[in-house]
């Protein structure tokens, strides 16, 4: 039995829980990290969440910080990540750099992938053989990670896409419960009218809009604000879902109601997403991400949003290309509001 750092298990389950472009490659990634980080025990992994032994490159700006570090092959500048989610994002961005161009043409199997990237990733001629030998261990880890923590009392989970996050609604089609890597706390109030006109004219959900709120107030505060209503603005304003800075997902409004979160005024709407209204769009907000310099969700928020949007889109059969940032569809919002994550989701 090998010895692992506790954080390594968390990283593996994060990879197992989150939607990725090539799910069959998950064991290849984990096998690489087992070798590179010595099962999470390396100094780079423990101090900087760098499980890939990745040197810093400019494409990683905004995800990782450059740190000078003395590794076995000498002093160099390595990536320091704030957390596991940032490492995951950084790892995939690292692969999208020019030295690995074409790796998607080698994504049919872990073996094909590793044989292609291995010789570029490391100078060691035995690198590919070593990582290939770790694939069975990596697969076992992934299996254990994704079945851990499943509540036996929970209803029989039958996701429409096996192994992916999904939601179930209660009988009133109002309260969502998340499964397989998605946790949702319901904070809505059936007595609140929410968006009165939008709810009266409600249509099936056909899109999802990503928002941010200003820094300084908690998700719970915004949920309260929406339920209490704003007498100055004349109504109830807010979203169906609020994602806290630590990735916690709150459901602030029942899904049988509609909420006031976008404008339908033609003069401020753009052509992109023009089919969406409060009556047919789910609002998801990154709490506190609306900095004056632009919308900057934390890595936890981005990861949680991807999981939540995946599950909502799957449940309501909303196409991924009907997911937008508020700043993309409306002229009077900061252009960056919700944009980056929405663009990533549209490319799924
Ligand atoms: Zn907004």
Automatic annotation (TrEMBL):
Highest taxon in the source lineage: Bacteria
* Gene Ontology biological-process annotations: peptidoglycan catabolic process
Instruction: Indicate what this protein is called per its UniProt record.
Output: N-acetylmuramoyl-L-alanine amidase
Report the InterPro entries cross-referenced here. Amidase/PGRP_sf (IPR036505), Amidase_domain (IPR002502), MGlyc_endo_b_GlcNAc-like_dom (IPR002901)
Q: Which residues form the N-acetylmuramoyl-L-alanine amidase domain?
A: 194-338
- Signal peptide per UniProt: none
* One Gene Ontology MF term: N-acetylmuramoyl-L-alanine amidase activity
Transmembrane spans: none
